[in-house]
Each structure stands twice: as structure tokens, then as C-alpha cells.
Design brief:
Layout (H helix, E strand, L loop, with lengths): L1 E4 L10 E4 L4 E7 L5 H16 L9 H6 L3 E5 L2 H16 L3 E5 L2 E2 L9
Antiparallel strand pairs: 1-2, 3-4, 3-5, 5-6
Length: about 110
């Protein structure tokens, strides 16, 4: 059975369906061309809050500039929720791409006023 994670507050990212279980695999990639180092730094902060400092091995400015994918594991669903909350703005600004358990995290569709 899957869980649907709703983002709190205003809709920045679309709801995300993740598989049940405590171990989640996340793939991240910095796609910001203007300031990849800054986007990496903000993404790195969210990663270390969710998975600890060990997940940062090999994730540096060079990887961000090359726009390479980086994989790490998140061991609890509540930590995954925190990670998604921390990166929601980066995803909405299209500065990073994120996949959780082979599901792409997408920005919410903009609604016309």
C-alpha cells in the first residue's frame, strides 16, 4: 500500500505517492545554471537533515556543475517528509530535480487567477 504525502501550507509541489516502508531511495540533481553552488548548498542542508552527513559523500560543487545525479537513502518516512518540505521551494523554482523511489517530485501546476 502506498502513502500520499501532502505538502503543508500553500501548494508548492504536487502530492507525491510513495511506497510504504521505512527505507526510501532518493536521487537528486542540481539543474540551476546560474548558481549551481548555492542550489547545492541549500539541497545539501536538506539532505543532511534527512539522512545524516554520510549521504553527502561525493556530492560537491563539481557534481552540481556537471548536473550529475546523486543517490542516497532516507531511513524513515517522517525524515522523507522533512526532506520534501525543505526542498519544496528549490523544486518549485526548478533549481533541482528529485526522484524518490523512482517517482519524480514535481512542482504544483500554476493556477490561473
Amino acid at each position: 500500500m502506498a502513502q500520499i504525502i501532502q505538502f503543508p501550507g500553500r501548494r508548492i509541489c504536487a502530492p507525491l505517492r510513495i511506497r510504504s516502508g521505512s527505507l526510501h531511495v532518493a536521487w537528486v540533481r542540481v539543474i540551476d545554471r546560474d548558481a549551481p553552488e548555492e542550489a547545492r548548498w541549500r539541497l545539501q542542508y536538506a539532505m543532511q537533515r534527512a539522512a545524516g552527513f554520510g549521504c553527502l559523500d561525493g556530492f560537491n560543487d563539481e557534481v552540481a556543475r556537471r548536473r550529475a545525479w546523486h543517490e542516497f537513502e532516507i531511513k524513515k518516512t517522517w525524515l522523507l517528509r522533512r526532506f520534501l518540505r525543505d526542498i519544496a521551494q528549490l523544486v518549485a523554482e526548478r533549481r533541482v530535480q528529485v526522484e524518490i523511489d523512482d517517482v519524480r517530485v514535481r512542482p504544483a501546476a500554476a493556477h490561473a487567477a
